[in-house]
Amino acid sequence: MKRAPQFSSLLMLVLCGGFPGNATTAEVKITPDVVYGHKLGLAMTFDLFEPADANGAAVVFMVSGGWYSRWVPAEQSAGRFKPLTDKGFTVIAVRHGSSPKFSIPEAVSDVRRSIRYIRTHAERFKIDPKRIGVYGMSAGGHLSLVLGTTADDGNANARDLVDRASSRVTAVVAFVAPSDLRIMVSEAKDRLPAYARYPALTLDMKAAATYSPLAHVSSDDAPTLLIAGDEDKLVPVSHSQNIAKAFAEQKVTHKLMIVKGAGHGFRGDDLARSMDAMVVWFEEHLAKK
Questions:
Q1: For residue 26, what pLDDT is reported?
Q2: In the Cβ-directed half-sphere of 158, how many Cα atoms lie within 13 Å?
Q3: What is the pTM of this model?
């Protein structure tokens, strides 16, 4: 079987734990493979990274590139979260049902459940259920935006206690994120040829609209930082610009950071500045009130 290409060198690093300094340290407690749900007889899991000086806020990372969600040993992932754990944030790396077996609607259902589960078990994880942020890159950024724009307060009559919890998040950071699937699916006019290589985008136009964050922006959306490269050929900067405009119209707190000369992945100073901006955003919006 021919494998779909990786979105970028950055996403390969993110998914495979290749950032420098990716060994665990004594200051961070790692709990791998926490089960947040089941489907088809299989467990859905996340990894938990708890700093010794935890500040009570959680940042949830969407493990997703091209809507593929791959497992790596948690110890290999600790380094990529160091900018956050150094500031006292508890980091939770969530995996969803991966393409090509599972589709975007199923991935969205999974990550929504992960937020409900984390909120339900906030005391166990020593976090404030009102201080949960989320971020991701590319497909992970899309899922982060979905959580920020289409959350609900849970089903009070659900038999499962987890389903009674809210899927709302307090703040979002979305790197190079698709915001409008309606221009990416096969029915779309002038669709970029590269999108045909991603099975997750095999959606009809109705489903594409349902899972397009741009189509669901409203005044109660979470504060969102958008980070995009102006030379991105896979997810053009217009995705971030268009949803930033929609946020402005709805008076949603947001910021658009455009990285000049960057494509779909960031390196060196561009990556460092982007990560610093993410940490500052979460410090501002997840601070204890």
A1: 54
A2: 12
A3: 0.91
